[in-house]
Amino acid sequence: MRRPKSKDFRKQQRISEESEIELLKSWIESQKPESGSNPMSLPPLPKNAPVGRVDDTAFSRYAGVGRFEQLPLSKKTKDGLRAAKFVSMTEIQRASLPHALCGRDILGAAKTGSGKTLAFIIPVLETLYRERWGPEDGVGSIIISPTRELAGQLFDVLKSVGKFHNFSAGLLIGGRKDVDMEKERVNELNILICTPGRLLQHMDETPNFECSQMQVLVLDEADRILDSGFKKELNAIISQLPKRRQTLLFSATQTKSIQDLARLSLKDPEYLSVHEESVTATPTLLKQIVMEVALDQKLNMLWSFIKTHLQSKILVFLSSCKQVKFVFEAFKKLHPGIPLKCLHGRMKQERRMAIYSEFCEKRSVLFSTDVAARGLDFNKAVDWVVQVDCPENVASYIHRVGRTARYKSVGKSVLFLLPSEMQMFEKLKAAKVPVHFNKPKKELVQPVSTLLASLLVKYPDLQHRAQRAFVTYLRSIHIQKDKEIFDVMKLPIDEYSASLGLPMTPKIRFLNQKIKSKGALAKTILDEPQHQKEENELKISQKKLDSSDSEGEETENDLLLAADNPKEEGKASEDAEIMPATRILKKKKLKINVHRPLGTRVVFDDEGHTLPPLARIADTQSGKESLLLDPEQKAEYYRKMREDLKKADKEDKLLERQRRREKRIKQKMKWKEGNMDEDDDVSGSESDKATARPNKKSKVYFDSDSDDGERNEVTGKGAIGAGSVSLEEQEALALKLLNSMHSS
Ligand SMILES: Nc1ncnc2c1ncn2[C@@H]1O[C@H](COP(=O)(O)OP(=O)(O)OP(=O)(O)O)[C@@H](O)[C@H]1O
């Protein structure tokens, strides 16, 4: 008796889903500009606005809409939102959802903690639902996050809001070991939430990894992903995505780089900055304090702050992993009376995730690098954000303090500024950040430096950590871009060293050099080559300092102590902070062929070693290889080769797309037929029916938890391409390319 009921129910459900999809589609159609409707965001919600009926044809009827229920969303999404207790929309959701649901590209900006995540998760679910996306359709949406923790958080939101949908979703982030398992399953996934490095690794290494049908691309913390730190990865990713897609970019801070829209080929994007007119750039319930603290007093201040806030949940930002490690280890040994934790980009991934979850749940102090600066929600319950080291710019400040006072909760923050950094205070005020200046109460300061000195004597390891912390701090100041604020020459380094408990001030090569050059030239302006070098150092080291996707064991030789041999000195400075990254870049160059410009050939010598591209060029007349030394000849040859390959590539892609489309349609037809038959067959068992479209019902929430194979700019672990393409395969590829050249 129950079986026919369940069959009817399913049939009914399918019919209602189909008509729902048709309704949603007709609504989208009605929103196209040529239909005469006005593509606008919803006007500000009037107080006590009446809750109106959902009308799927007239966009203007959405004026006054403030609840998700009133939007033209699928029942499954609405159920998911209701189950997660999301009822009313936040401002950015009201402003962007109508546009995003219509398939428009979006540049969304809104304060931290204002609900930007749902503003892109909902359109992703809806678009795939309307397209009747199924397992055989592969990757339908890619959501990119700059950090692993944030990716994990987005994955949780997707799982909760999308739990009534049948899509499969995967979390692809670095630091996880079982990359092979990921490779096997990645093609079954419909929604990928990933960090740029891991996504690119799959694009490079996973056989048949396919995203040519992808519909929606999302960049969360878009300004960060678009900045120089991820430039290479992002460009390589974009080059492999279909041009016909919807692109959604969200961030609390819009920078110039986000207007670098050409890279993303946005189509008439809607720029929605809901808080632009707001009096403040930070959440209104956030109380912000700035204190002037001398460098040698910073740890005393921090210690005193923790000791006087033992009942609070505190997030402390420091500028490098080594500082985080030292302060964490040292304070832990002093037992302040509140649990201490630390988080930085060089921890093992499992540990990182565990620390993040523990901090969400428990009152404690978390010492962190900027790895925790963006996007993380921490269950809304961080009481204090303490910035011990000055952020690199105003945007960075806004994201850091944004870890508290999220959604409708209150929060407080304090920023320690050195006397030489007080310019930052002015910059914050100019950027509409309501900061109040407070003087520290000297009588409340509990000195910790003497305690540290005795700890360092007792624990030589800790002394080593202190030295590293000292050097990396100075270095972090040295490489900062904003020289108006950050001037390493103004720092009282001996006092600072003593404040860490160090018996002697470590020597620092780059500082000594700078002092020398300052003395000799009587000026601080660096000469051109040196300046250039520093710019480069800045780019690489910056990436490392706030590295989100880098991890592994730290390098041992980064103390940058003065060496006797000047040559060695030079090497030491590069080796210490910069070499690891450069080394990996070289490795990548050797191993990744996919991202070379189209038409660049890989040529092998007799022993199978690759020669630099274009070192040798095949002589198309004789079929032999010859050296083309004439640059014009080379350029012409290169141009032709590129054109040919581009053409061939285009044709291949077109064919492949057609093939997939046909396959998809066939599968759908089959599925439909199968289902109709099945419905007519009353005697069919439940299990038989479930196999009519086997994967459709099986929701794969795939959160692989392992691997250190993600690109690691710092340590060199898990460089892309390692071992993924055998020599034979490379040779075969090269031969194929050569043949196609010859035949053309
Ligand atoms: N419509 C809503 N109703 C209730 N709570 C919401 C709603 N939208 C979002 N939230 C909650 O607000 C908090 C902040 O949301 P979210 O993390 O999306 O902010 P954000 O704007 O992305 O912040 P950031 O800029 O820091 O990344 C979360 O705890 C989320 O659950």
From TrEMBL:
Start and end residues of each Helicase ATP-binding domain: 97-272
Chain ranges of the Helicase C-terminal domain: 294-452
Stated family: Belongs to the DEAD box helicase family.
InterPro entries: DEAD/DEAH_box_helicase_dom (IPR011545), Helicase_ATP-bd (IPR014001), Helicase_C-like (IPR001650), P-loop_NTPase (IPR027417), RNA-helicase_DEAD-box_CS (IPR000629), RNA_helicase_DEAD_Q_motif (IPR014014), SPB4-like_CTE (IPR025313)
Enzyme class: hydrolase
Composition skew (Basic residues), residue ranges: 660-669
Protein name: ATP-dependent RNA helicase
Keywords: ATP-binding, Helicase, Hydrolase, Nucleotide-binding, RNA-binding
Domain notes: The Q motif is unique to and characteristic of the DEAD box family of RNA helicases and controls ATP binding and hydrolysis.
Matches recorded under Pfam families: CTE_SPB4, DEAD, Helicase_C
Region (Disordered): 28-49, 526-574, 646-726
Reactions catalysed: ATP + H2O = ADP + phosphate + H(+)
Protein role: RNA helicase.
Compositional bias per record (Acidic residues), positions renumbered to this chain: 548-557
Enzyme Commission number, as recorded: 3.6.4.13
Presence of keyword RNA-binding: yes
A single GO molecular function term of this UniProt record: ATP binding
Superkingdom field: Eukaryota
PROSITE patterns documented for this protein: DEAD_ATP_HELICASE, HELICASE_ATP_BIND_1, HELICASE_CTER, Q_MOTIF
DEAD-box RNA helicase Q domain sequence ranges: 66-94
Motif extent (Q motif): 66-94
